[in-house]
Amino acid sequence: MGLKIGGRVQKVNGREVSYGEFVEKYMAQNQPVVLTGLMDDWRACKDWVSPNGKPNLHFISTHFGKSKVQVADCGTREFTDQKRIEMTVSEFVDHWLHLSSANNGGNCDCGAAGKPLLYLKDWHFVKEYPEYIAYRTPVDFSDDWLNLYLDKFHMHNDPDTYSERNEISCSDYRFVYMGAKGTWTPLHADVFRSYSWSANVCGKKQWYFLPPSQHHLVFDRNMKSTVYNIFADVSQSKFPGFEKAVWWECTQEENEVIFVPSGWYHQVHNLWDLLLKDYTEASDYIEDLKGCDDFEELCQRNLAANTGMNFYDFFIFIVRFAFANVVLLHKLAHGKKEPNQKSSEMIQHIYFNLESIRSIAVKMKNIDAGNRQGVLLDLRKNLEDHSFIELYAAVGKTYELIHEQSEVTQALSQCKELTFSSLIGSQVQSSEDLVTFIDDALTELGGAFSG
Known about the structure:
14 helices; about 15% strand; alpha+beta
């Protein structure tokens, strides 16, 4: 079945687009875009590519071969995904080279000599090799709260939903992918339905996007499951709307970065909406246990297992970021330097992020996730927590990078000594508390930024 192609993704020189322009034109408008010129100084582009332009598999196997990774068998479906196999990077490279040799050195898009076509996915390379700086995150994507948070905290403190043994596999969302021609990924939803970006170090990658207004066309009649392979013989009776879908197409070349916005099918919901949807499904699934005392605990445990976090995790996540942003705002409000255009833009950015957290907290009031879990977060205690200080520093450095400032994270050791008058004693136990905390902070600190 041929796809209807109705648009192509724009390509622009990333060095000529400011952060503000990128946010306004692409992120805020939810438009995919390919950015060029951002990978020229990346170490990966030098070490991982051979002089002939092909992947330097020998280098990768020699330096990182002992890593255990998840590899997808592109020819075998397992439920809604491809079958996964665990092997070392060296074993994967050997398989790739054997496949290439069996195809007489060509780059055939099918398995050979009984060998499946394998695609290395979700390799947590940055976490596993922190000293090897393969790349630097482009400024446009640096405001990445999820990875900043996971660098300092575990998402789950509950031993039933977090395994110390498997730390690497659940520690961040910075992935490396490797595959020969013909490897592919089924139609899918990215982690937590947030936006994502992907840089192509070597080779080419073909993308197909579906605008958010059409995502329902790839679901079945019950809006439960989606098309697995858009190039297969899709059942018209099961997916009656699929033929009407109009796709955007893009060929991502070497040294190009693609921005995948929220809402282009596999980006359907924002994180809170996703959690609420999955929570409803989890509670409906065990509805017959609704009279049990631990029903809510079971729902939250299932939510963490299926979605990656539960209400408890998410609540702590946004409260810690609210604390970090308020600390930064306080530091700017009591700084010695007069605000300039760049620092004013940074202050507006912090305000925007605090207002975003507040709007989510308002949505959470009906559920009151924190209160029902007995969560209590204390600002003073967080300021004594080394992990929080590191998170605060990382958030501050991100603002500095984006807005070309330097005063925010100077003298970080003074962070513990900050006095916030009434704010320093703030405790947040519910979404209503969080709304009040943000309102009080903006009221108390807002006067320092009049005009």
